[in-house]
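If you are new to this repository, start here. Below is one unmodified record pulled from the training split, so you can see the exact layout before writing a loader.
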Amino acid sequence: MLERVALLGSWQLWAGLSALFAAITSLLAKLGVEGISSNLATFLRTVVVLVLLAGVVLVGGDLRPWPELPRRSLIFLLFSGLATGVSWLCWFRALQLGPVSRVAPIDKISVVLVAVLGVTLLGESLDPRQWIGVALMGIGAILLALR
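And here is the target side for that same chain:
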């Protein structure tokens, strides 16, 4: 029982589930963007995400008045939300124009970018083995995206 509880607290489990659902999202989005504008597709998906997360927050009892929330967190989440919106608009347009099997790897170069930015902007560190992994991920994404 304790092992299962510990597993639920594992960032690796949640990251793996995120990757699984991101893959499923990509396939469903590619099918869903056919016949409608990419902007409308992004909007519709965002509405679904908003409703889902509103339910999770309400059921989880996480809702707090805005003034109680840390100002710094609100500012960074505002900009994160704007970046997410632009990313999703670009993502759906790319899906509309190209095959998901080649669009997704280019999108996942974000993993390489976030590793570099995490080191340079947040002071995180990667050892040589991890830098090799980052480089291989970038190379792999590029090879998948090429014709």
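Two things worth knowing about this chain: The helical segments are 2-8, 11-32, 38-60, 71-97, 100-107, 109-122, 128-145. The chain has seven helices and no strands.
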